[in-house]
């Protein structure tokens, strides 16, 4: 019964006023990010319907991801930690930074924010549709999952470093660097797997765009990559100096 | 009579030497920003007259907005708070950060700065005209207002976060992040509503460019979006820890 | 005789080991900046000989200016103050931050750095020539001077703000913002007057590229703009709190 | 015998747990950087097979280098110093910051990270090949070596400045500026010598891409340029105030 009690204690912590503000912050940040990211893909299609044939469309989308995510992480970093991405939240659960019930509310907020942003874009632009993430015709779903997973590994690893107090004054550019790794990865993977690294964004674009084809690619890879990054950063590459912070229990608390 | 007295007291505060320096700082910053933003739109037209058909023109304009606004906010942040935008000033009035008479002088300074920048561009480039903001032929004025309003919501929300002392060392990249969200939003909305988020810029481009068509779109949406951001940030998402800062009076003072 | 004595005292200060290191730092920084800026113009010509017809060439050149200048200012800011530009040095003389003899050695170092970078580019690329700054065929030399002057005003104003200790932690992104305003201005002025804002860069590109046509445009405008920025920032917009720092003497010292 | 003893003492220092974590950090950072840089070159080829004819492909690659390297340096700066490049490691050996045995393990980690990233890209993209660095047909190998060497000089000079504690709060944007100088140099040299500045990246791309043509260009130039930067920064331009830090011994220790 003990874990259940702990779980319900965690649940009560997850509905305090401060916790509710965190969910609202995640909703707003994910909304702002997906508005920029999904909007830029629609904008480059509007300018050039066959946007996949022009490298400058890739620049448009990569910069919107970079600038949008850096801003979105920045504004919520003081309230919710600035996840803006279910994979980041998952990586933080694996590292025992937030309990599972809180993470579930984060996920819901992020997915709602993404869906709302995509809906708004579709409604106001009238004849344009949201562009779901898609994989290149040459690639397999497995290969795309691996690519998205490795890219998300990099993103979540950067998130861990950006929040690490041991980095001192480097922490002041943390949200910017989270944006930069995202943009770098979009430039590398855009025409191959889309470079989503964000299941909430992919879900919103798929739900509003009307195609869940290969949706699993944008969940399995990123969640696995995020988990590996969370374990590796704190336990292998840069372990805390005080060795009295052991691995957390199954209920998401540090034991 | 009391409110009137308060208003006149606020007015006297609005013409001190420090206040006049603030207006000059807003004038210079808006001039520098609009010179870059409006100039880049003219530059991409000069290079490719049908600039709307090439995504790299969108990159040109978005980067000029990002880099120009970050610089313009940076240089006046120590003097006037670095608004550079009537919508930001309005959002600060709603949040009770500046009194209404001061805000009126900020607006005048911003609009003058924008008009002067557009005039200079038109005169020196001889055969080029300033490009007013325009909405896509598919869209309605209402849809464009909503889009500009939501984008400005994001911008003003970032402005609030960037000036929030609770963000600690993250404050050092504040002006940069204000530029980044602007660039992200231009990349998303460029071919739809232009991505202005700034009534002063839109007014200057319209006045010198010679077309006030849809001008209301660039005032109503941004002002409403800014007001919502100002209310939401301070009162819901991230309220001050000391609960003794209540809502301000109608005259713009905190009561 | 007094001013002459002071001048010679200043001259002796200008040849100390620390001063010589400053000149070397300015030489290296200007070399690195011009290598990137002039190289990017040659690179876009190499890729597309009629580079003036493609907005993405403007992006290439603007980003090279932004990234190159931010880096160049950064590396010499602790040694020479990171001018990397005779117009900035002139603006600092006008504001009484450095004496005239030192400024002359700065100018010589900057011009040598620029010429060396252009020479290296011409030699290693074999069949490519350095691209001098040029003004659009529609524009007058006077208009181009005004435009370059106004752009340089913005740049030097940012330089003043970036070095102002009253900006506190914002000082940590100073060199970056100096790069950003340069990039913003190149995006606005590239196809009109080239967006040089830097007489040393324009001189080096002209000397090695073999055309001094309109060279005066890149000296008169920038130097005047820099002087106005220096006077305006310190004396009008953001005067020192302690009013005992009056205007400097003709010999470049504060009286 | 004394040097040999010192060398073996250095070797023992090079296999402590902290040292092993440094090598893992260099492996991960180089993997993340090369994934973005090499991936972006493949992405622009995928979009436009004749990518060398479009300046926006150069923007894609330069931004991926900038964003990817800034992120990669950031995440390992607290563990391994964030070299991510054998030339940087060599420059640090020349400046006596790390002993030679440690440097050898850094090189191995960097090269492994690069090869792994290129292999992953080749496997998951199925029909795309990694693009090795190449020099323009007009240029000589010697000219390309000089160009890569001068560019790497700039990069390593920036690395020295970014890690210099005398720069105070400017240190907080150090990893970003290391990315910016890399991007600036890629924009200048992309169509001429590729703008690698990184022997590990060039080796990985050559090994997986299947062409070691001109590989020496990407080793000789960068290593020489890095050595010159290391000597010049610490000994000439910006020597330590305490003159009791002399040149280091042949075994890599400061004497």
β-strand percent of chain A reads: under 5%
Stretches of chain A where pLDDT falls below 50 for ≥5 residues?
243-247, 249-255
What's the overall geometry of chain A?
globular
Mean of pLDDT of chain A: 88
Order of helices and strands of chain A: HHHHHHHHH
Oligomer: homotetramer
Distance between the termini of chain A: 17 Å
Backbone CA Rg of chain A: 18 Å
Quick one: how many beta strands of chain A?
0
Largest sheet of chain A: none
Structural class of chain A: mainly alpha
The greatest interface between two protein chains, and residues involved on each side, is: A-B, 52 and 50 residues
Which descriptors apply to this entry?
homotetramer, 255 residues, mainly alpha, 0% strand, MIP_CS (chains A, B, C, D), Probable aquaporin TIP5-1 (chains A, B, C, D), transport (chains A, B, C, D)
